[in-house]
Specification:
- It is a single chain.
- The protein is α/β, with parallel strands linked by helices.
- The protein has one domain: Alpha/Beta hydrolase fold, catalytic domain (Rossmann fold, 3-Layer(aba) Sandwich), CATH 3.40.50.
- Helix content is 29%, strand content 17%.
- It is built from 14 helices and 13 strands.
- The strands form two sheets. Strands 1, 2, 3, 6, 7, 8, 9, 10, 11, 12 and 13 form an eleven-stranded mixed β-sheet that branches. Strands 4-5 form a two-stranded antiparallel ribbon.
């Protein structure tokens, strides 16, 4: 595919501008992460509710020579932590933070309150079912960094997967009791590429017994999977949900061949796609039926965070998302909280002993996004490989997401040609239909009724029940009970 198409197909489109890091792309630190996990124990996180489980945060150096270090936040399970599996969660972008999204807004135990000063306890946190590890990856995302500027020029899928694998191996040295735990990787959005790519490396490297990771499966939410099918699904979904006209939809169908290297040289195609994107600018593409964040309601001084993109360049520089959801201003709260000096000291981002300056944290880094150099057009070949090896693969879609909609995922998965094990039917949560699902030989696909792109924001209870079923290796409840 052309460079333009690769750029177009990264998780991005959001019509809301996210301010890139200012003077914060490179962070030079002479202090290395210490190997003992107790050095990373979080003991005084500002505004934290009282909890009985331990959590850890800090850096793992993945490349000593270049000074490349990734930031993580790890939460032990709320109970029976020694018996429960380990789940790694990744967000996408590329360039967006798993701490800012996954841990802070979706599935972590602490959700940032509206004023950016306090934390609320999340009763539906996924650490009730598993030990949860959140990773800011690759370098340049969140607090993760490199002291070698040339590292930022080679960011891409393979670079990210290899660094994530190096992180895991070194993290297990700090937390050896988790080395032999059942291990799962989960993520959403552009992590639809990160997750299977990392899983493939783990599978291949497991041939060396000293590197063995007990990978059991992967869990993917509204994932980018196959670029061409993702595009087709986005177009058809926009039309079927009355976002674009019959005429615009027909022009795209007639003039856009998303499998072609030359599709974006067709002016009729690009014009019609620009019209589709312009309509989505009026709403939240990631959550069709909820409000957008208007003005500066959170009190953040960064007003540019909600400036609409109106130029035609949006088609080739589609932006990472600002989260939709019941509260569309969630990003502002996270930005306020993680840029506090006392918070960064508590998370071991800056030294407790010195008056280090605050590290400039952003929920998405546009420099990373714009410089992405390697994006696989499809990860379906990896799916086939992992399925043949018996790994558990569950894929889910919030059905009110317009960016990686349910149609995109259905179109992509259909290319696998998997035989059906159990036919399409509803699944239930608290006697109500949570969505629909179908079980194939090798894969389960499910929808979440009424959920946007970041499903746990909209359906926290259902998401937790879904995770529990996934980890148990059974099936979703298909009867009211």
């Amino acid at each position: 595919m052309t460079v333009v198409l690769n750029v177009l197909l990264k998780l991005s489109l959001l019509m809301v501008f996210i301010k890139p890091l200012v003077d914060g792309r490179y962070w030079h630190s002479s202090k290395k992460s210490k190997s003992g996990s107790n050095e990373h124990l979080v003991t005084s996180l500002p505004g934290q509710p009282s909890v009985t489980f331990r959590h850890y945060a800090g850096y793992v150096t993945v490349n000593e020579q270049n000074g490349r270090a990734l930031f993580y936040w790890f939460y032990e399970a709320t109970n029976l932590a020694d018996e429960k599996p380990l789940v790694l969660w990744l967000n996408g972008g590329p360039g967006c933070s798993s701490v800012g999204y996954g841990a802070t807004q979706e599935i972590g135990p602490f959700l940032v309150d509206m004023d950016g000063r306090a934390l609320k306890f999340n009763p539906f946190s996924w650490n009730t079912e598993a030990n949860m590890l959140f990773l800011e990856s690759p370098i340049g995302v969140g607090f993760s960094y490199s002291n070698t500027s040339s590292d930022y020029d080679i960011l891409g899928d393979d670079f990210t997967a290899n660094d994530a694998y190096a992180f895991l191996q070194k993290w297990f040295l700090n937390f050896p009791s988790y080395r032999n735990r059942p291990f799962y990787i989960a993520g959403e959005s552009y992590a639809g590429k990160y997750v299977p790519e990392l899983a493939e490396i783990i599978h291949d490297k497991n041939k060396d017994p000293s590197l063995l990771v007990d990978l059991r499966g992967i869990l993917l939410g509204n994932p980018e999977t196959c670029d061409a099918e993702d595009w087709k699904g986005m177009v058809d979904y926009a039309w079927s949900h009355a976002v674009v006209s019959d005429e615009t939809h027909e022009i795209i169908k007639q003039t856009c061949d998303f499998y072609s290297n030359n599709t974006w040289s067709n002016s009729n195609c690009t014009g019609a796609v620009e019209e589709l994107l312009s309509q989505y600018k009026e709403i939240d593409i990631y959550s069709l039926y909820t409000s957008v964040c208007i003005g500066n309601s959170s009190g953040s001084s960064d007003k540019s965070a909600h400036t609409l993109i109106t130029s035609k360049s949006s088609i080739s520089k589609m932006m990472p998302r600002v989260m939709g959801g019941y509260d569309p201003c969630l990003d502002d709260y996270a930005r306020s909280y993680y840029n506090r000096h006392d918070v960064q000291r508590a998370l071991h981002v800056i030294s407790q002993e010195t008056k280090s300056s605050v590290r400039n944290w952003s929920i998405c880094n546009m420099t990373v996004f714009d410089s992405w150099s390697d994006s696989k057009g499809s990860v379906l070949p990896i799916y086939k490989k992992l399925i043949s090896e018996g790994l558990r693969i569950w894929v889910y879609s919030g059905d009110t997401d317009g960016r990686v909609p349910v149609l995109s995922t259905r179109y992509s998965l259909s290319l696998l040609g998997l035989p059906i094990k159990a036919s399409w039917r509803p699944w239930y949560y608290q006697k109500q239909v949570g969505g629909w699902f179908q079980e194939y030989h090798g894969l389960t696909f499910a929808t979440f009724r009424g959920a946007g792109h970041a499903v746990p924001i909209f359906k926290p209870g259902e998401s937790l029940a879904f995770l529990a079923a996934f980890l148990a290796g059974g099936s979703l409840p298909s009867r009211r009970s």
